[in-house]
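Summary for the steering committee. The consortium agreed at its last meeting that each partner would contribute one worked example illustrating the joint modelling workflow. Our contribution is presented below. We chose a case with several input lines so that the handling of multiple components could be demonstrated. No manual editing was applied between input and output; the record is shown as generated.
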Amino acid sequence: MAVCLDAESIEKRFPTPGDDLVVLRDVSMSLAKGESAVIMGPSGSGKSTLLNILGTLDSPTRGRITIEGCDPFELSPRDLARFRNRHIGFIFQDHHLLGQCSVLENVALPTLARMDGADRSEDPTARARALLDRVGLADRLDHRPAELSGGERQRVAIARALINRPSIVLADEPTGNLDRATAERIVSLLGDLHRDEGATLIAVTHSQVLAGRFERRFDMVDGTLMSHEVS
Ligand code: ADP
Ligand code: MG
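What follows is the complete predicted structure of the assembly.
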């Protein structure tokens, strides 16, 4: 199967007044298009740091990543921003929705930032409406995030992450603030959408139950990723 994401010997160190803080020592992973993977590990083990690098928000101090055959860190800042907007969808623990915008605007917003002219003829809100319908929020389009429950806000965040048909969806503890039943529904929805959309999905969670829903599992141990191949 075609490779979507390849990370090779990723190191990330942060300077401190003393020795550098080495958070990622040697992380390698390769995911095929459409695969789903979960990353587990204790708090502070570097999971978010890795997700930020895979999402091109932060660069590694050593090593290389390739997404859809491209090394994003060789791009100019402008091209990198375009690449990220086109290829990567993020879902965060605390949703990061814009409080002053409606649900529909929050989801449609990333399409406005697209600079490649794709789908210009299409109503920019058509896909946003379809996705919001898919996550069960068709009747909440005009509501503000503050008027929604935590689970509903994460549904909006999922729709927003998928709006530009990204190659990769990165979810950093997407259910960390939700009760267990809501968390299971959100992960189930994420799984269904990831399958329908054909995106590669990488999620971080502390829940063993939720982790069981993913095709591949990695544990962050001492700055490296240990793979648990599921037979
Ligand atoms: P996790 O997501 O697994 O809880 P993080 O990736 O957030 O862990 O953090 C891993 C370690 O890296 C922590 O010790 C954290 O303090 C440190 N760290 C993260 N970002 C920075 C930064 N920008 N500067 C310095 N240290 C950082
Ligand atoms: Mg984290």
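Helices lie at 47-54, 77-87, 103-112, 126-134, 150-162, 180-197, 208-211. The first helix runs from residue 47 to 54.
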